[in-house]
Amino acid sequence: MLDRPAIVEPLDDDKIPATFTGNRGLDQEEPLIFEIGRLDATGVDIGAPAPVETRLGALERNAPIGLPGLTEPETMRHYVRLSRKNYSIDAGLYPLGSCTMKHNPRSNEKIARYEGFADIHPLQPQSTAQGALELMQTLADWLMKLTNMQAVALSPKAGAHGELCGMMAIKSAIAAKGEGTTRNVVLIPQSAHGTNPATAALLGFSVRVVPAAPDGTVRAQAVKDALDDDVAAIMLTNPNTCGLFEREIVDIADAIHAAGGYFYCDGANFNAIAGVLRPGDFGIDAMHINLHKTFSTPHGGGGPGAGPVVLSERLAPFAPVPFIRRKGDSLQLVEDAEGAQSFGRLTAFHGQMGMFVRALAYMLAHGGDGVAQASKDAVLAANYVRASLRDVMTQPFGDRICMHEVLFDDGWLRGTGVTTLDFAKAMIDEGYHPMTIYFPLVVHGAMLIEPTESESKASLDLFIATLRDLAQSAKAGDMTRFAQAPRLAPRRRVDEALAARKPVLRWEEKTAAI
Amino acid sequence: MSDRRYSKDHEYVALEGDIATLGISDYAQSQLGDIVFIELPDVGKKVVKGKEIAVIESVKAASEVYSPVGGEVVEVNSQLGETPALVNDDPLGRGWLVKVRISDPGECASLMDAAAYSSFLKTL
Predict the structure, then answer these.
(1) Interchain pair A501, B36: CB under 8 A
(2) Which of A132, A133, A183, A402: disulfide with A243, CB 3.0–4.6 Å?
(3) ipTM of this predicted complex?
(4) Considering only the top CATH level, what class is B4-122?
(5) What is the CATH number of the domain that holds A141?
(6) Mean pLDDT in runs of 10 for chain B (124 residues)?
């Protein structure tokens, strides 16, 4: 086990005098831009516009609109200072479970900036964007091969949007069979992502909850018990949100199909199995793939999501437009599904082109074997963390192998006075973004850690040593590291309850201090 | 109140005549943490035993409240709109949620009394 790294002398708040500026060293406080802006400053030098005859009449604005004025250096400093307060995967380990904060390779960024990809417009003639269409077609082909599915809709713009797309295809298929009014229930396990019941509800389905077995997974028998003529589909995540593989998934698929329903697989955790298992082999009908997670496109403030959906042969006819079709030597983006049963259009255009480029670049750089290796390394890293912490922290479903993320509960904190929230906040003082906490809801005081394959063993060892050290402090009753944490961040513990009860959503001049 | 009875989902019912006051137990509020928003039903809504009657959102999660009895909503605690923290501060008193005119007083019999609920909590 690693020793504590050699660092600066311990911090003692009382011995550090207040500074005149409120800054600490070169870590600068940064007010809102409205608070530092002045009306008489500007970073650009534009001449007064030529006078024009106004047609606005009394609607013409005469009062200043209150935009903050800053010089160019002030503007630059404002945003650079703010960016330095941000924490990102480029700054350090980001173990947020269920979010897959893996490294975004720089080569992908370079390729996404090629003119042919970065400067095209969705409305330019298709004959001038054949390379981009070829890229989309190649990406679609990879996604279908990795999942062993028959069709793919590229346009959904995030995981939940992909869920909506897949469930709309299922709803259309059910309506086409004349069962639109009778099949109105969707089965969802207790541990599901909150987006699953939200998607079902948005489409007018009601939700029936499938209980989890004591080992944290769903039994085929529990699904059979919940099945009836009114069931349209099941939405199941595999691996599930507890980081466990659903071993009875094939039996579950058989059961839902025998009852006349469809199987929506939530592919949020595909990064644990990509290249190793093909979800199509489980018997699923639809699954979204978070390109921003599994295929490492920037997300979580760094870029938009992208959630293409793969569909089974049964659902393929209902896929949304547009889709790509090869006609002779050229590719066409089909906007009108003449006579087909497509449920229509999901987005204005074809999806997140920039993310398609990055995802395909990732796939091509890794190759099929590399994608599989990344999945295996993600599982190995999670289990290394699990095995290194299992003697000091507790696992809710016993000491078992996990997939890409490891779940601890707060059983080991009982009686210490330290809560999961305190523990997570203390990690901030140690320079780590906390893990996901209090999710999944089925586990008390959940702490969900997803290290991803990006971390070296040295990086994981330091992370583990830090958590062990914190855990020992908690057990020894050293509340100073927890009760006030974070003590060293630019802001101390935020009052989450006040923020939720009385949110301040916009800046207002002369607003009363809260 | 000695006639307060509890469900396994940590709701309580206090019965006066045929009017049942519903709320969540002290254990439930402590597990939820700071409550920030409460969605209450409309007066006049018919409720079914075991079905959702309210939603409580805390800093940790949004949780459904299931009605331990069936009947019709006759009053909701309108103070909770402004001060949801009443449920944290005084769950059995000023933090009550809903008053229901119950259709079957017998439904309360299957609920636990304070002593039984207290023993039930020890098993969790």
Answers:
(1) yes
(2) A402
(3) 0.74
(4) mainly beta
(5) 3.40.640.10
(6) 83 93 95 93 94 91 91 96 94 96 88 94 89
